[in-house]
């Protein structure tokens, strides 16, 4: 899932080398923490959160069949 998120996000940003995804997993959920350069945060979120919502939709769809846990994507600094 981390590679999927990186593949989606890297073409969108000006600093692709600073894109980093960390995983926080426990018994019933997985949280993917997406870190980008502060100047790229707006590009990843998009107007009214549309890009972030699209990223989350793709990841949730892929993770739903892959994992049997609740999946979240957080965009952080």
Automatic annotation (TrEMBL):
> What's the superkingdom here?
Bacteria
Naming one, the record's GO cellular component terms include:
cytoplasm
Q: Which UniProt keywords apply?
A: Cell shape, Cell wall biogenesis/degradation, Chaperone, Cytoplasm, RNA-binding
Q: Which family does it belong to?
A: Belongs to the KhpA RNA-binding protein family.
Q: Give a short account of what the protein does.
A: A probable RNA chaperone. Forms a complex with KhpB which binds to cellular RNA and controls its expression. Plays a role in peptidoglycan (PG) homeostasis and cell length regulation.
Q: Which HAMAP family match?
A: KhpA
Q: What is this protein called?
A: RNA-binding protein KhpA
Q: Which organism is it from?
A: Ureibacillus sinduriensis BLB-1 = JCM 15800
* Phylogenetic classification of the source organism: Bacteria, Bacillati, Bacillota, Bacilli, Bacillales
What gene is this protein a product of? Answer: khpA
